[in-house]
Amino acid sequence: MKSYLAKYIAAGAGLPGSGEAALLGFFSNLDLSDWEAFLIDLGMRRAEAFEIIQPRAPETLIPMAQDFLGRTSPAAKGLAGQALTRILTQLLARHRQPEDDVAFLDLLAVASSFPYSAAVLRKIVHTVDAGPDLRTEAARALSNINEEPPAFWLEIDYHELPGVAPIALEVLSSTMPLQALGIFTALREPPTFNAALLEPLGIATTQLLSLAGGSALLLDLLAKSPAWARAAFAEVLDGIDVSRVPEIATRGQEAANLVRILHAQNLSARAPEPVKEPSLEILGAMLAQSDKVLALLERWSPVADASTVSLAVILELFVRHPSLSAFSALITIARFYLAEIRAGDPMLGSRSNSAGLVISALVRQDHVARAGRQHDSTVWDSFRQLLLSALEVAPTAVGAFEALLAQGTGPRMVASVMLRVARARSMAFGDCYELLSTRRDSRFAMKVLRAAVREARTMGSLEEFGAQLYDYSPQIFDELGRDLAPREEIAILARAERIDRYYQEDPHGLDLYVLGLDGKVMRTLPEDGRRSTL
Amino acid sequence: MQSALGEKILRNIEELEHFLPMPPMHNILLAIVVADEQPESIASSYQLACWANNRQGEAITSERPALVWRAEERKPFVNWLARTYKSEFANIRAAERFVEDLIAGTPPSRSRALLAMTPHIAWVTWNRCPHSPIDTVASAQEVRDYLGLDPLGRNRSEPILLLHYQAPLNLLKPTIADAELFWQFEPPPEDFTNFGLIRPLTAEIPRRPEAIHEPAHFRDLDVVRMTP
Asked: What is the C-alpha to C-alpha distance for residues A129 and A221, in angstroms, rounded to an integer?
């Protein structure tokens, strides 16, 4: 047994009610080699690390470890920092396998809890061979420790490490807004416009405007900025309620003038379109970026974190702009996410979320909606196939099904999806039907049910579907009864009522009965002349 | 599985579980049988089998609640947000600000409204009887006591977040596979079939309803409370 695990058991820190003191006492009792062994196990996500941290879900192992380790004593943090420095230095020096990089990223996150590991994090940020992903994560860990002098952030080469720009903005936005904005406007290429960047950009802009002479400084900065930066500033200023920032409100007229000037500048830099829409330049840049990322996906090349981030942005773009023709791009993205989920990606939650977004974006695509209405089988079949695989692996059913209904999709497609949703247990049948009947009229709902009966019959799942329908509402089932052959109806009822003898003909040939296990009559079919077909 | 946790899990499997269908139960038993005899190996094998067979309980059979409550330890939740959604939060401080805004009642931005609130499975409860509303509980530790959280008592000095949101359509009965290695979980008595029941930290507290669901989104949030 590993030494640190023996100490854990001896400390009783894993027993109910043992409390925080037992856990922190255990950490204080670890020596340098114990820390090394424990941190390596944590980075490699070994069972021993799970036993000690006891997360409720595998994804929360590192977040919980960050919390516990952040509460340890300064002495324990010192030792842990030393151990982490050793591990990270060794990892940096050797030829790394992909799994090493995963552990490396985890350990960089853990390093956020130890100010003592700042030196090695700084070293990683400045080591070109470490690659942009690890360098960016090291910078993120440093920003969480939050002890670096501003000069550190101002000296980074953001052309090499554009992913660090939002982190630097976040760190400097409150205290050095002009410098923070300077980092942003000096970027040589348009960055990814996500919340991680735009939020600190907004904070820095607000801070600058609240300083005396701030608007003049901002105007001066804007004069030297590329068009994409001005567009971003216009968007950010749109989101600032100047009346709620007292420092700006006192200079209300000055701020109002600035917003007007910005809009004027920004509008001149792009085609006439609503102010809230991104400029064509930004769209162009994002689409160009999407081509690069999609090319990688098409070749099934490993997609680094940075590319995954780009992917999320591209996705957001397509969600917001259904008129952009992105059908094949979205199909590619969806396949990527689904493959990742199937391969057991540890980020299952966010991947499923992303897969759900892709499906929603696809459903909303004008191209797909048209195909659905016009029965364009080429487009429709690809979409349908994808949707069905998504329903198998990702918890995306509700959103996809709702979107499908909102889109005016025909009853056959809705029926097909509903059957699979109910079958994959992503949603209960009753919930599907409730959504269906609240979003569309009852005539349409009945058409869907009829289509579902036909498809279920083809798929050999009529009994299962019928029994679910009967469980949900015997009245609706009765209405649908006309579409069923008597034998089918009896088989469904037998399944729904959980009886094993289906039917028995009245000796006088007048009626049909369904008998339960106890021999009692459960249901009598109406006399409608269908007996002869049995 | 000779530890106290192992004994408890075995009791759950052998005597108490009745929401998990046979095929996944079979898979889990098989994983225990084929694992090495080392306790760590059994635990790891059991956890993997649970992971592969979770969300197999049926939908709850009582009336579905309109709103549900879920509790999250604040700091790990913020850390998880920052770590999972790097395109939304530049670092932990940005995620912390987001959570503070939610507590203050500021609705999330459009992109953040679409983020999932949990990584994989969410455990929720709801107010069935008027005399047991979880939202009026005064302290973080009382919330944990009621919800059976943090049985090791490691977070007693820490605040907790209560998230109140629209109940997703698919609320499922929780099973041993969903609970994995969680200490406090215990299936309800065999004659209780409507939904799961939380096992609180102390015996005096009545058992509240319990269900699981797939990740919901921040757009579904009604209110977030921080209990110190």
From this structure: 34
pLDDT tens sequence across A165-224 = 999 999 999 999 999 999 999 998 888 888 999 999 999 988 888 777 777 788 788 878
**8 Å CB contact of A19 and B154:** yes
* pTM score of the predicted model: 0.65
| Nearest-angstrom CA–CA distance, A396 and A412 | 20
Distances (CA, A) of A2 to A41, A45, A529: 11, 15, 78
Q: Do A357 and B156 touch (CB under 8 A)?
A: no
A400 close to A390: Cβ distance less than 8 angstroms:
yes
Using an 8 Å Cβ cutoff, are B227 and B140 in contact? Answer: yes
* Selection from A167, A84, A93, A83 nearest residue A130 by Cα: A93
Q: What is the 3-state secondary structure (H, E, C) of A317-336?
A: HHHHCCCCCCHHHHHHHHHH
Residues 74-113 of B with CB under 8 A from A: 75-77, 79-80, 82-94, 97, 109, 111-112
CA dist A514 → A472, A484, A493, A497 (Å): 20, 16, 8, 10
- B209-223 in b/e form (b: 16+ CB < 10 A) is bbbbbbbbbbebbee
- Distance, C-alpha A92 to centroid of its chain: 30
Identify the CA nearest to A304 among candidates A93, A136, A110. A136
Strand-pair category, A521-524 with B67-73: unpaired
The per-residue pLDDT for range B100-147, each reduced to its tens digit, is: 999 999 999 888 898 999 988 899 998 876 555 676 777 898 889 989
> Strand B122-124 to strand B196-197: parallel, antiparallel, or no bridges (unpaired)?
unpaired
A365–chain B Cβ distance below 8 A for any pair: no
Phi and psi for B227 in degrees, rounded to 5? -105, 120
Residue B91 to residue A60, Cβ atoms within 8 A:
no
The alpha-carbon gap from A214 to the nearest alpha carbon of chain B, in Å, equals: 24
Distance CA A109, CA B83 (A): 8
> Taking CB atoms and an 8 Å limit, are B84 and A313 in contact across chains?
no
> Which residues, listed in sequence order, are joined to residue B69 by a DSSP beta bridge?
B125, B164
